[in-house]
């Protein structure tokens, strides 16, 4: 009972119930983001709503990694300027486009990567097999796809032409998200392709990450379930 002191994202042994649900709400917010954001961001009339969906998912991410104060501070430091840039881009548009492309996108990438690492650490350190643990494990997989999608968009901004798209289209975030999850799941339809050496390197690294994560996820879930059955 004396283990109530905070030891990180996984919380304390007696505080399992206190943290129950954070991974669940993160998973729900990520699913909403994945379904809604690509459509909302493409239309000027709904871009602001798309930004709110993104902000909601980022708040859920910060809440899920709030085991230590520094995690919250870093999350806000990364997400705050990026969200403000997105809002300014909606209001002012072209005057802040360079800031949005070369500052906000890398910050978004860093935020989602940081959140992915912390949530993964929280899931791995869990000692109890419950529904929230499963939600956290699935959320990590979705976070991987989102993180890589922002990395792809950032790469395209810094090195134009890194990805090949169908004629008449541009490499939008919706395209990046689509390509990221195709790569993560190792499907690949061939309609979007990495064309530069760096883009190809990132793509195969994401594919390897997806395969390895599934192996780690299954092994960890089996281990936790076995522990629960023994208890």
SS class: mainly alpha
- The number of distinct β-strands equals 2
How large is the count of helical segments?
Answer: 8
Shape: globular
Question: How confident is the prediction overall: mean pLDDT?
Answer: 82
Fraction in helix: over 70%
Q: Please list the strands of the largest sheet in the order they lie side by side.
A: 1-2
Low-confidence stretches: 1-19
Descriptive notes:
- This protein has 231 residues and is mostly helical.
- The protein is built from eight helices and two strands; from the N terminus they run H-H-H-H-H-H-E-H-E-H.
- It has a two-stranded antiparallel ribbon.
- Helix 3 (47-64) runs antiparallel to helix 4 (69-91) and helix 5 (97-125) packs antiparallel against helix 6.
Describe the SSE topology:
Blueprint: H1 16-19, H2 22-40, H3 47-64, H4 69-91, H5 97-125, H6 131-158, E1 163-164, H7 173-184, E2 193-194, H8 197-230
Antiparallel strand pairs: 1-2
